[in-house]
Amino acid sequence: MNLRNTNHKFVIVFSFIFLAEATFAQSPNGSSASSVLLWVVGIIILFALLFVGDSLLKLEAKNVDSKKKGVNYSILPRLGEIFGSKVPDFVPSDNLHVLQKGHDILLEGEAAARTDKHISHSTAFAVKPTDFFGIAPIPKLVIKIGDHVKAGEPLFYDKKTPEVKFCSPVSGEVIAINRGAKRSIAEVVVLADVDQVYQPIGRRDFGGMTREDWMSFLAESGVFPMIKRRPFQLIAHPSETPRDIFVSTFDSAPLAPNSNFIVKGREAAFQKGLDILNKLTDGSVYLGLNAKEEPVKAFSEAVGVEKHWFHGKHPAGNVGVQIHHIKPIKGQDVVWTLDTQAVITIGALVLEGKYNAERVVAITGAELKDPKYIRTFQGASVSNLLKDNLSEESDNIRIISGDVLSGKKIEINGFLGFNDDQITVVKEGNYHEMFGWLLPLAPRPSVSRTLPGFLMPNFKYTADTNTHGEERAFVVTGQYEKVLPMDIYPQHLMKSILMGDFERMEGLGINELAEEDVALCEFVCTSKQPLQEILRDGLDMMHEQG
């Protein structure tokens, strides 16, 4: 739908109205009731013909150009064109997807657009097997405590896929191999050197490498764990050839880092990463662009990719939503997905000749003195990232690796998640509110119009973890469908997962979803159901069934 080209529609509609009113006004004063009735019938017939013709026009236009979604072929404007937000002028009309569903959660504590360099000296970094779905809880370690490793040197691998290496983000000494339940490996901790030393990747003829050569090279270099495959949201496998590869260049989650800011200074590595991705698939590399904020040239002028623009509220930035509107997953399709910083790391392998696990991390949340960006490495120590930056009430906060909707709770002595580029600090919601929802004593983010927040669409809230209720009967409410811009019935899907009905799960579209896609549904859920956990159980069941 192109909101910039709707003026002619208003002209047509109001011309008909004006013509009808002018004709009626010119009727003689002594007109009988039958004459008035005749004019009314004429006007009704006129509008009936208009709407019938308009419907036929839309059907024919969609048949001629069925690939375009969200385009209003009608000569009549939609309500969204009248009252909705206007698509900016920098957005082309081709490959534009306007999403009508979703919800933006505006919170205090957005990171300021500046970067502090995080000193890696005497700082610990960790790689956590628990960050990856589908690998054994006890992977094969290739190091031991006391070993000195280089950045990009393997730490462990999954016994089922030994060709995919999990590498150290920094050079330094292995100081801990922490274990969890049943002797599972929770994290491998490396104390970083003052001066970083990188594992050499060797001399290679990149121009003459085949797809199989690239797959092997990326798997050995440590970047394959950054590539996710759908269905099941697992680590991509080098033996697979994906149908297509999708990259989202923006994140619409609450307080999410701005990719325009993150890619600054690393534009060449991003483009080189896209060039390499094109060698891994027989299909296309699709780039999801933000139609609400003008992307930097590294995104809007990227070559070798098919660009699609998305205009709407969260989860418009989710790569799963973008796949659904560009080219949905069907049958036995396998697609790969990456985030912006993963593409940069892949490009740096060739341009810099090293595994550069550098990350720009957004430190966000209202419980911080100074929300900002920090340049560090994957798996950075949380205590160092938040040093001297917590508010005075730091004894009653929750630290989240990721965003408030789909991130994981971590302790102050923990480490940033492998795929995360955001830390969010919020208040703990360990309090009871008098009368609860009957008398809300403080403003809170909500999609319900029973609370006055909908009258202040730009108001930023102070987040906490209070759920304002407990888990209750899982009833059909239709809430999920209002915020998930996909042709999926999520509540029916969740119930089919709880029943273990594999055929229904597949038919209802489980292969298109990952946890982040239903995080907003979990936020609006009246029944307080852990939808992300339920979906993960379903994905694991489907994966085990093959």
Mean pLDDT figure:
88
Sum up the overall morphology in one term: globular
Give the number of DSSP strands: 20
Tally of contiguous helical segments: 15
Structural class: alpha/beta
- Percent of residues in beta strands: 15-25%
Unreliable residue runs: 1-8
Proportion of helical residues = 25-40%
State the separation between the terminal residues, measured CA to CA. Answer: 39 Å
Cα gyration radius (Å)? 27 Å
The biggest sheet amounts to:
7 strands, mixed
Question: In order across it, which strands form the biggest sheet?
Answer: 1-14-13-12-15-10-11
Q: How would you characterize this protein structure?
A:
The chain is an alpha/beta fold and 546 residues long. Among the domains are: 82 residues; 80 residues, no CATH class. The chain contains 15 helices and 20 strands. Strand 16 and strand 17 form a beta hairpin. The longest helix is centred in the first third of the chain and has 32 residues. It is globular and about 100 Å long.
From the structure above, extract its key features.
six-stranded mixed sheet, disordered N terminus, 546 residues, alpha/beta, globular, 15 helices, 28% helix, seven-stranded mixed sheet
Describe how the helices and strands are arranged.
Elements: H1 7-25, H2 33-64, H3 79-83, E1 96-98, E2 115-117, E3 124-127, E4 140-141, E5 148-149, E6 154-158, E7 161-167, E8 172-179, E9 185-192, H4 211-221, E10 228-230, E11 234-235, E12 245-248, H5 259-262, H6 267-278, E13 285-290, H7 297-300, E14 306-311, H8 319-326, E15 335-338, H9 340-351, E16 358-364, E17 372-377, H10 382-385, E18 397-401, E19 408-410, E20 422-427, H11 479-483, H12 490-499, H13 502-507, H14 519-524, H15 531-544
Parallel strand pairs: 1-14, 2-17, 12-13, 12-15, 13-14, 16-20
Antiparallel strand pairs: 3-9, 4-6, 5-8, 6-7, 8-9, 10-11, 10-15, 16-17, 18-19, 18-20
Helix pairs in contact: 6-9
